[in-house]
Amino acid sequence: MVQKYQSPVRVYKHPFELVMAAYERRFPTCHLIPMFVASDVVNEETSEDGSTQKIERRCALDVDAPRLLKRIAGVDYVYFIQKNTLNRKERTLHIESHNETFSNRVVVHETCCYSVHPENEDWTCFEQTASLDIKSFFGFESTVEKIAMKQYASSIKKGKEIIEYYLKELDDEGLTHVPRWSPSSHSLPLSSPTSLSTNQPELGIVPADSVPLSADARDGPSQDAKQDSNLLQNDSLAEILPGTPEDKLDADYIKRYLGDLTPLQESCLIRLRKWLQETHKGKIPKDEHILRFLRARDFNMDKAREILCQSLTWRKQHQVDYLLETWSSPQVLQDYYTGGWHHHDKDGRPLYILRLGQMDTKGLVRALGEESLLRHVLSINEEGLRRCEENTKVFGRPISCWTCLVDLEGLNMRHLWRPGVKALLRIIEVVEANYPETLGRLLILRAPRVFPVLWTLVSPFIDENTRKKFLIYAGNDYQGAGGLVDYIDKEIIPDFLGGECMCEVPEGGLVPKSMYRTAEEVENEDIRLWTEMIYQSASIFKGAPHEIVIEIIDASSVITWDFDVCKGDIVFNIYHSKRAPQVPRKDTLGAHGITSPGGNNVQLIDKSWTLGQDYSMVESPLTCKEGESVQGSHITRWPGFYILQWKFHNMAACSATNLPRVDDVLATLQVSSHKCKVMYYTEVLGSEDFRGSMTSLESSHSGFSQLSAATTNSNQSQSSSMISR
């Protein structure tokens, strides 16, 4: 596989002629490149006016390779052919090099160019590209590739230092200016100091910045070079065409705004950026954003390109680029979403505080729906990107991620409400896919005993690199050494964490049920970032219950449910049958002759079935009033088919007078057409999965689950077993 390298534009803040004078000092040999042992001029041509000079040289390199490999190859030195074309009139030096040794087995090609900076004629630019294609090498192809890439990465980093070394040497000798070439300057005597770079023949062809792929630096491979040796694996991007000067990245810009990157990391960024410029139709992401995707895939070009393109498509589809301008948080979020930005940490990263323990996650999901909640989270991430750019300018160093502080004080089993957790997992999935490497550190404070349960559910969906950034403190451990003060200045620690800084993050509280969305609002929701909703709605009529069937293969599986009674009173039942119910008869309302607009109605239990023979009741009936929320679970004892049923609640007669109660009569009058409505969610956990989250299920019963003695004992035994582990 062909490995490629593309350098950023490296700038020498010296005139072209002076840089050429420093460049010539490296020959015939250079003590800074001990592996460059010899060179012979093969051909030399100079134009009549002296403005153009071409030199072809044969260079010998003593490659730092295992002795056994050299003996197998049968060579002591590796030879390269290099061709230089110096155009003094245009002020450019073009360099091409390729290997002569093993050219039928290994193909190395490198091009370099020195030129005048397009915006400052007293500065010099340098660019470099290279490729390595190992076709065969006595069965050591992988070894040779790793040696070549490691040494090349080391030599790239050393290149600019060598030119700077000779520039300083010239300055120490008092040579600070070399005149530009002119038609008459080539007649100056060679002894004149001013003719150093304009008249003296070129002595060397191997530029310091373009040591061939098997070159090595005197100090040996650095740690960065070792890391770089793996960066170009699995890279199959097509050859990148040269860009215009304004399209190119400057090395100083990279260091100032993107951070210290190794040479091959710079190459990955530049090449992916160019590929987007040439192929992507639409807005090109900022360099910081491209770099995040590369880091998320360890600078694997193909993998980074794939996830970046998917994210760009997603951003365009959902108009995410305009989210900060178009999104306005609903009032319920402003009042009950317990998160907000709060200054910055000691590294200058924006600090986001989330008081998760004070947040009514269920209320927010029920009041807002998933789409609105997701858009709010996306707006937080977009604001985080904006703040990172702002802090980069303020602090004068690259800041590409933020710190998140999560306070879990108040976290309890209500937060482990499974539909809410599932919504959280989907949000995490979207954020992980489209905002990689934006979280620099996550500080989790005052984690209660229930936290491991939540962590067990959530952690598999979080990228491994992200999980490594989590710091978890239980109780008040965060107040001591190694705690919060190590990452946040004492002056900005929020008051609710024992600090002196007032924090404007809302305190939260329970979202009033009056703000919950109705079933119709859920069903009429047009814009969705997810293709399905967690909840389903159902209409229930007198004589026409709504039923769903769940097939259980393994005994001891767990059926979990959560439902809200939106209208009317209902009775909830659970049945078991060894027989599979018939095909559902939707909207079968019998003599009612009416449909169920805005809701589903399915009946599964055949009229010919007999209770106790064809099917049996496994839970005591539960009467639920309008406006109630019910969560619960059932541990299955047998395989087969379990039927969950919601049916219309018939008014009970008063036991003493056989007359209906006043409250029941009034309730009946409020239910138009004997119609009820519920919104429900169910999920089945395997027995193994159930054991890992037993506590969450046990605490979510909300008074339901009046199980038989055997089932209750099963619940308790499995729960205690989980805790003991």
Automatic annotation (TrEMBL):
Q: Which GO terms describe its molecular function?
A: RIG-I binding
Domain called PRELI/MSF1: residue spans: 3-175
Where would one find the signal peptide in this protein? Answer: none
Q: Where is the GOLD domain?
A: 531-684
The UniProt entry's GO biological process terms, in alphabetical order, are: negative regulation of RIG-I signaling pathway
Query: What residue spans carry the Low complexity bias annotation?
Result: 182-198
Q: What name does the UniProt record give this protein?
A: SEC14 like lipid binding 1
- The organism's taxonomic lineage, starting at the top: Eukaryota, Metazoa, Chordata, Craniata, Vertebrata
